[in-house]
Amino acid sequence: MEDKSMKLRPMKRQRVEQSSSSSSSRSSSDPAEVNTTTTSVSLTDLLRAGKWNEATKRVEENPNEVTAASDPSPLALACRFGASVECIRRILEVCPQKVRRLLDSRGTPVHEAIVCENVGPDVIGLLLKADEELGADSPRATVMQDVDGYTPIHLLIRRRFQSHVLGSGEHFMELLEMLVQSAPESVVIPDRGEYEEPPCVMCLKANVYAPLLQLEGATAVRIERDIHDMVRCMLQHYPSAASCVFSGYRGKYTALHSAVFHGRCPDTIRLLIEAEKRCPTSSEEKPGLLANTQGELPLHFCSMRGEPPRTVALLAAGAPEAVSKRDASGLTPMHWLWIRFVSTLLAIDDAERGNLACIPIKKSCNMKTTESNKYSSFAFLEQGDFEADLQFVRRVDPSVDFLRMRHIPGEVLDETDALNFAKRTETILQHVRDRHRQLGAANLDENDDNDGEVLWSRVETVASLFWTKVVSMLKAVETTSDDQDGFSLVQAAFKSQYCPPQVGRIVASMYPSEMADKDENGMLVLHHAALRPWHAWDWPRNTTSDSANAQLLELESASLLRTAMELSPLSAGSQKDVTGRLPIHCAIPTFVRAFSSSGRLCTESSVKEILELLTMFVKMNPDSLHQTDPNTGLYPFLQATAVSTEEASASAGSFPEEFSLSAVYTLLHADPSIVRSGIR
């Protein structure tokens, strides 16, 4: 799960007697290394020499050598050097207990057999059967651990996965299923390394243990398929593995964390989420909501790395609460989504290929535009083909590695640059949507060729993938789906506490008519934005060494509200909800409580920002100064005083009275005649 996990740890296992596969491939036809007869040569010498027929005969003639208390045992040596099936069968018939004989540096005979790539399912089957028939009086060989903490499944993944992908290894998946089926609980036994990885996690990063594999083209697809098959096998026999919580370098984690961190394909992510649903854990340790020491959830990893839209949708739908969770730096998954998108645009611009590299994309059969899919289908470029989708996304919008996943470019922090990126994205997406609608209309023509291709620029493709991820997150948090009355993507963005202002601007620009729509409570987007609570990161730190995330989040809530006011129709300031509240009535208690709960000093910039927002509300509807809040029956300037008094009484510390006085003064200054009005 963690950054350092990409480094290979040297193995402690010392295999001095097996330096290459050539020694394990000796057969009875090889030149004898011991030129004596079977009557004078020990069974051990025959096994080391690879004389399987003679060794088998020796076992029959002198079974005491099999049962002798010697290490390594004849069974271990037979497995180490790849003895014949008949030879191992005879040894097991004489002393099956040796299958559970453990040597720290070598493991059990099952470990030895797994390491020897010449050993196939026939021999492994014999060993597992003998192990099972010994009963539960002693620990199973399949769960015993060597000095590194490796079980046979650990060794299978580390020693045979690479050759399996390269095509030089046989029976890999067959052996894995045999081991898992024999001892399902072994898939969650952690090793003794720094990261304490169980096999169900090790298989998710199996490509790390295969340095010769090239992660491009067909090989990358093969790797993903094989890892998917390994995970499916383990979860089929032990679904609880998806719910198990392990201890790692950065605290607790699950298989889901590792899968996302190492960029596994959406199909593998789905396997883990579905298995966890079948065998759920406690709510506190639900994989999708379990944070590491940096407060990062799987959905954070997903956004930080720039994973495909399907992965984002699966994680958001599987744990909707994760969408609004902040990591230790105060950033939500939506923030990281925006950061990674801007980083990608910068990389494309640097390469000067944003509008030049045209990508042919097959027309989708789902290109018909309807109200039910108006938010997302026009940008959904994955078409349900495992290989094609995997290669397409990795070629067009590849995820970043663990070294860059937490990087925040300066262009995201600069207000002007961020605004320009947002406006640029609006233009791109609107163009893509218009073209999608044209294609959808063309698809209605029976004479149209649905198998044709459409050329997209890379910028268009990346922006569309980003949009799909945004929609997935916003939809996941809402209890209603977008094919039901009452759902508004724009309202979902502005009433949330996790949506960056730039993303809110993009959403509102895509669907400007929704800025004037009311929800079931008669509330506009402006009402929701005014009610959005401020978070602790909104407040300036009064330091010249602010981290990038602190700069990004400073006065974020104010910026989102300002965006809502700019993009709302002028009449929005005069609209009341079903209780009779104007947007300014919603904003005043939000402002006062923000200062009360911030725990920080009122800086000049924060006070100035809020007073400017109050002034903007008054400009939108000057008559609002003369309309009372239905909850308190007070005019706005008195409402500010009342809320301030309430907060000061409830506050354990000092309450910043200077802000409340400034707010009252600002409202009175806008229309001093309000003083003459009485309280209704």
TrEMBL record:
<dbReference type="GO" id="GO:0005737">
    <property type="term" value="C:cytoplasm"/>
</dbReference>
<dbReference type="InterPro" id="IPR052420">
    <property type="entry name" value="Espin/Espin-like"/>
</dbReference>
<dbReference type="InterPro" id="IPR002110">
    <property type="entry name" value="Ankyrin_rpt"/>
</dbReference>
<keyword id="KW-0040">ANK repeat</keyword>
<feature type="region of interest" description="Disordered">
    <location>
        <begin position="1"/>
        <end position="40"/>
    </location>
</feature>
<dbReference type="InterPro" id="IPR036770">
    <property type="entry name" value="Ankyrin_rpt-contain_sf"/>
</dbReference>
<feature type="compositionally biased region" description="Low complexity">
    <location>
        <begin position="19"/>
        <end position="29"/>
    </location>
</feature>
<keyword id="KW-0677">Repeat</keyword>
<dbReference type="GO" id="GO:0051017">
    <property type="term" value="P:actin filament bundle assembly"/>
</dbReference>
<protein>
    <submittedName>
        <fullName>Uncharacterized protein</fullName>
    </submittedName>
</protein>
<dbReference type="GO" id="GO:0051015">
    <property type="term" value="F:actin filament binding"/>
</dbReference>
